[in-house]
Design a protein that fits this description.
3-stranded parallel beta sheet, 3 strands, TIM Barrel, alpha/beta
């Protein structure tokens, strides 16, 4: 059972070990200077949802979730730059629902957030992840 409140680092490390943290960790970029060691990246699967075979995140979790942790999956090609706030929230809800059960998921955009992404969509992504990512996850 997770503690009442974990640090960001504890959340990420728990997720990388396929354990449920207190909430799904949130990362706003793909920088390597976020305190995760190189060893952790060996079991991390960045999820590019528009790449062939990667869009079905529920299948990825079923097939690889016991050995890999997932990072990303929030679409930066269409949903973040062109979607509505409601579409961004739905994207986050879907990815948490697909990849979050049992731990092993860090909510993050697929790539770095680009200048054409409306600030309201960045806030919507963060708010949705914060609201919907508390364990136990709601379906």
């Amino acid at each position: 059972m997770p503690r009442a409140e974990m640090t960001s680092r504890e959340r990420v490390l728990a997720s990388l070990n396929n354990q449920e943290p207190d909430r799904v960790p949130i990362a706003l970029g793909q920088a390597t200077g976020d305190g995760i060691t190189l060893g952790a990246y060996r079991k991390l699967l960045p999820v590019e949802v528009r790449a062939a075979g990667m869009g079905d995140t529920a299948r990825l979790k079923r097939e690889f979730g016991d050995t890999l942790a997932f990072w990303g999956a929030i679409d930066t090609h269409h949903v973040l730059p062109q979607g509505t706030v409601a579409e961004v929230r739905e994207e986050v809800r879907r990815r948490i629902s697909d990849l979050g059960p049992g731990g092993g998921y860090v909510v993050s955009p697929v790539h770095n957030i680009q200048p054409d992404v409306p600030p309201t969509n960045v806030v919507a992504m963060y708010d949705a992840a914060y609201e919907l990512g508390r364990y136990p996850l709601r379906r």
